[in-house]
Amino acid sequence: MSTKMQWVYTEKVKDHFVNPRNVLDDEDSFGADGTGMVGSMACGDQMLVAIKVRDGKIAECRWKTYGCASAIASTSMMSEMVTGMSLEEAYHITPKQITEALGGLPEHKFHCSVLGDKGLRAAIDDYLEKNGLENPFTKSVANIVCECVGVTDQAIEAAYKAGAVSYEAIQKATGAGTVCGKCREKTEAILEEMEHLYGKNHE
User: Fold this and answer.
1) What are the residue boundaries of the structural domains of the chain, listed by start?
2) What pLDDT shows up at residue 86?
3) Are the C-beta atoms of residues 46 and 37 closer than 8 Å to each other?
4) Catalytic-role residue among 43, 61, 146, 148
5) What is the mean pLDDT of the chain?
């Protein structure tokens, strides 16, 4: 029997994992304009994204993580992709775009790619808040999950962060799934993602 390990990722993923770009070595000396922390050590992945902003664009994007190869590679790739982008463009970058740039990720590792884009959004949110600027991007990235009541994924995320960490608690907090119930599968998938990002006992 061969004991040689098999690499199941693309060569781009391997490159960004072995030679990650834009790693944040020293947070204090970087002098970030905005920072965002997402993830949960309880779930095994945690991500810090730091940005510098010049003339409404991402001048530099640095990051550090406690995470798997997929999380490292996807955030390394993201940091290259968003450098030079406007804040609006960067805010709307998706895990799918990052994954495609890497040539794909194993399906069970796709959730790792959301760490980078969530961390980036949090860093942009932080930058705007620190500078007393209105955030014009939030509504444009919200998706309707429960059509009967008009509940968005962002409303579910906000409820989760406020302590509603079960489907029943989300129903009570937002009204999602209280009419026809067809959105339950989508809602539970978002809850799984939130648990990965923030931990179940984050509150």
Assistant:
1) 11-130, 142-198
2) 96
3) yes
4) 43
5) 85
